[in-house]
Specification:
The protein has about 375 residues and is of the alpha+beta class. The protein is built from 15 helices and 11 strands.
Amino acid sequence: MDCKHASALLRIRQACSLGLPSRSVMPIVMRELRALIPAACAQFTWASEAGRLTNFWSDTFMPRRMAWIVLHRARYEADAGTSFRDLVLFGQPTGNLRRWWREGFEHSATYRAVFEPFGFKWMLDGVVRDRQRPYGCVALIRRRDAPDFSAADEDLLARVLPYLVHALRSDSARPSRFVRTGRSAMLVCSGDGEPIEWSDEAHRLAVYALLDEINTDARIGGGDFERVREGLREIALALASRLDDPRADAPLPLIERRNGWGEFSFRGYRLHGEGAGRIGLLIEQSVPVEARLLERVNAIDLSPRQKEIALLSARGLSNAEIADQLGLSPHTLKDHFKAIYGRLAINSQRELAALLLADAQANPPPRWDAAQLSEA
């Protein structure tokens, strides 16, 4: 295994060991999985103990594609030649869906509806389960002009599955706190709160902010999740009622939503010019502090062992706990800290934690003026 693959597997293992809810872990893992096994799309589908689909996450969220799958579930399973339940309960650990293309799947209604319009073709799946129960299924998708997944890709995915089992077993955990990341997106609503303009990223954030579960029982309307439109309308009108505060220093109106996907803030703005009468909604997602620490640790120039130590230290573990968890002697741990301090030009664990969270803590809430929004 080369160094790149080893580093990606380490980052996946670290993410799965954070003790976070699986919905907080999955975006991190899927991002690293795409670094390990290049793909155009990565997604994860959760399963109940009985094998029923209970939730869904994708890093390339396409509402109309998802709507077709939900509304035509029986057609999808017939074209695939297997049900989701049979896949997660009885399927092989990897590669169950790769046979589709040998059996004429490209001539099916499902292919024409949810693969062909987006240029998708090749799929590689991995079933996440242990002896007690299934937990779900990973799917990686490549475009038709890319090569099919190889046996080496399948082997790498198989290495990831035990880490995901570990993460999903501790799904009842809760983040200690959330921190801002600066990741945000804008959408525009009419004066009566109806969403009328949104980017793909704004749509994705809105879906995950307002739907705690995305499953086959979700109500769909016009290709969009109807509950999302209703929720956005309610938020836009609530913020609009606070936008006319006559005080010059009045804070931007804010509504927050928290669910299993994370913490989301909605800020409202009046639009002027051609957009007069409309309401701008800025959606910003915050992430668990543990996830932010992992992201920052992996961005700095430290060895894999030093990164593990820095992450555990910044999370508040004592030196004795770090040494015990990593199987190190106190003297060896002290040497590692000395090397970390020298490389980062700091002098203490307090400074290490401050460095790793500095940008998240100092990042102010975004502000937009009417001119910016009118151009968006």
